[in-house]
Specification:
The structure holds two protein chains of two kinds. Chain A is mainly β. Chain A has no helices and eleven strands. In chain A, strands 2, 4, 5, 6, 9, 10 and 11 form a seven-stranded mixed β-sheet that branches. Chain A has a four-stranded antiparallel β-sheet with strand order 1-3-8-7, with no helix packed on it. In chain A, β9 (87-94) and β10 (103-104) form a beta hairpin. Chain B is an all-beta fold. The radius of gyration of chain B is 13 Å and the shape is globular. The chains are: A mainly beta, B mainly beta.
Chain lengths: 113, 111
């Protein structure tokens, strides 16, 4: 089954404790991205990747890191989480970055206390 | 970059009535406009999209219209059903640049 898989689904952590949210897709998509969803703000892009070893900042990259060592995986790293990073996070992939459907993961609800 | 504004933020309709959600965009070079539906607790999923060389597109009860001159596009849902209740997001994209999403519309269909 074609899908984008994120883990974990739910995470509660403390300020400053490094964490990684994993994202994997099995559709051989070139383009992958991370969004955060906050009430009243919609979906805002954090980082994106056009292909392996090619990553770039989205609209709200501060406090986040990503890597794309393999085509299928695109982990999101929070080196020192803060409470303002409490949010619902979605990973998405698409065949290319241009005019193609974005497939979203199930979401990760992160709470930083 | 692109800026997409979406209205209304909430919309309630009676079952069987039509619902219209409107979005405007700022970048006249934007050429791809998808709509995503997000049911409660679920991931966003594409329901329809339109490209700038087309003025209207239909898929059963849903349709999208695009006015490039005015830089706005709309989602129309006819004969609404309770299962249409969800949050709907519009988005705009310019070439190979990123998707910019609107802030969402929570649609409630009242049985």
């Amino acid at each position: 089954e074609a899908q984008v898989t994120q883990n974990p689904r739910y995470l509660i952590t403390v300020t400053g404790k490094k964490l990684t949210v994993t994202c994997s897709q099995n559709m051989n998509h070139e383009y992958m991205s991370w969004y955060r969803q906050d009430p009243g703000l919609g979906l805002r892009q954090i980082y994106y990747s056009m292909n392996v070893e090619v990553t770039d900042k989205g609209d709200v990259p501060e406090g986040y890191k990503v890597s794309r060592k393999e085509k299928r995986n695109f982990p999101l790293i929070l080196e020192s989480p803060s409470p303002n990073q409490t949010s619902l996070y979605f990973c998405a992939s698409s065949l290319t970055g241009m005019n193609t459907e974005a497939f979203f993961g199930q979401g990760t609800r992160l709470t930083v206390v | 970059g692109e800026n997409v504004e979406q209205h209304p933020s909430t919309l309630s309709v009676q079952e069987g009535d039509s619902a219209v959600i409107k979005c405007t965009y700022s970048d006249s070079a934007s050429n791809y406009f998808p709509w995503y539906k997000q049911e409660l607790g679920k991931r966003p999923q594409l329901i329809i999209d339109i490209r700038s060389n087309v003025g209207e597109k239909k898929d059963q009860r849903i349709a999208v219209t695009l006015n490039k001159t005015a830089k706005h596009f709309s989602l129309h849902i006819t004969e609404t059903q309770p299962e249409d209740s969800a949050v709907y997001f519009c988005a705009g994209q310019t070439g190979a640049n990123n998707l910019f999403f609107g802030t969402g519309t929570r649609l409630t269909v009242i049985p």
